[in-house]
């Protein structure tokens, strides 16, 4: 039981976004789950989800910096790339 709580606490631990990520999600330290939520809000608001393959995200100028210069990434790759921008 204690193990489960510890893991949950790690996911909920506030993390500070890099300057590039802060352009999209804000500069306040927030949990990883909240970063993902805000990122998806940004993607949907700017219609960046690929229309043919919904699992792919098309990067605008702000996201391209976060996505290591890539024009398009998968949802799964996005999570990995975003984690590099959290401290």
Describe this protein's structure:
Helix content is 54%, strand content 7%. It has five helices and two strands; from the N terminus they run αααβαβα. The chain has a two-stranded antiparallel sheet. The mean pLDDT is 92.
| Count of distinct strands | 2
**In angstroms, what separates the terminal alpha carbons?**
27 Å
Describe the largest sheet.
Answer: 2 strands, antiparallel
Measured by DSSP, the beta-strand proportion falls in 5-15%
Number of helices: 5
Helix-strand makeup class: mainly alpha
- Helical residues, percent: 40-55%
Sheet with most strands: strand arrangement: 1-2
Tell me, what's the shape? globular
Q: Specify Rg, calculated over alpha carbons.
A: 14 Å
- Secondary-structure element pattern, one letter each: HHHEHEH
Mean pLDDT: 92
Low-confidence stretches: none
């Amino acid at each position: 039981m204690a193990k489960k709580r510890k893991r949950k606490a790690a996911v909920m631990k506030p993390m500070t976004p890099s300057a590039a990520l802060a352009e999209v999600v804000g500069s306040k330290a927030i949990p990883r789950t909240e970063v993902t939520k805000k990122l998806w809000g940004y993607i949907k608001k700017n219609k960046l989800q690929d229309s043919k393959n919904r699992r792919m995200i098309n990067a605008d100028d702000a996201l391209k910096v976060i996505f290591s210069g890539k024009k398009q990434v998968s949802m799964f790759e996005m999570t990995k790339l975003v984690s590099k921008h959290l401290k």
